[in-house]
C-alpha cells in the first residue's frame, strides 16, 4: 500500500476514533501461540542480557503522519537511532530483571524487530500507537543450552497526543519514560506470567501498523 494511501487512512481512522471512540479489535499477536497458552513461566532469574538492534532496520526521520520504516523515534535529539533504541531496551531490562526470581540463572538475548513510535506531526495531532516488536531467547548459564523456543513479542503501547502529550512532557512523563516503563512490565510478564505478555487492544489506529 502506498504511503499516501496509508497516511490518508491513518487520518480518516483517527478522526473516526475521535468522533466515535475506539472499538476493540484483534491485533496480530492478540492470541498467544497455542504452544504458549497455559504454560507456566520459566523458573529463571536473569543473570545477564544482551540487546541487538540490527543495522538492517531502516530509520525514517521524515515528519509525516506515518513515516515508513522500522525505526521511527523522536523522543531524543537526532543521533544514532539504533543506539538510542538499544539503550531504551537495556534500561527496561535493567529495571525488570530484579523483579524476576527463579531457580535457574539465564542469559536473556533480545533482538529488536521494530520500534515505530510517533513523528512530531502525528504526536501533536492525531496520535497513534507505539508499535514495538522484539524476539528473545533464554540461555541456561550453567549448560549453555537454550531453554524453550525463541519467542516473538508484540509490545504495542498507546501513544499520547496533542494537549495530553504536551502536558505529559511538562511533568516529565516523556515518550522515553513511558516506553521504558512499558518494556519493564512486558519483560516481567514474559518471565513470570503463564503465556507471557498479552498485547493490548488499542483500536483502529493499531490496525494501521498492519496495513
TrEMBL record:
Keywords: Signal. Residues 1-21 form the signal peptide. Pfam families: DUF6778. PROSITE patterns: PROKAR_LIPOPROTEIN. This is Lipoprotein. It comes from Marivita geojedonensis.
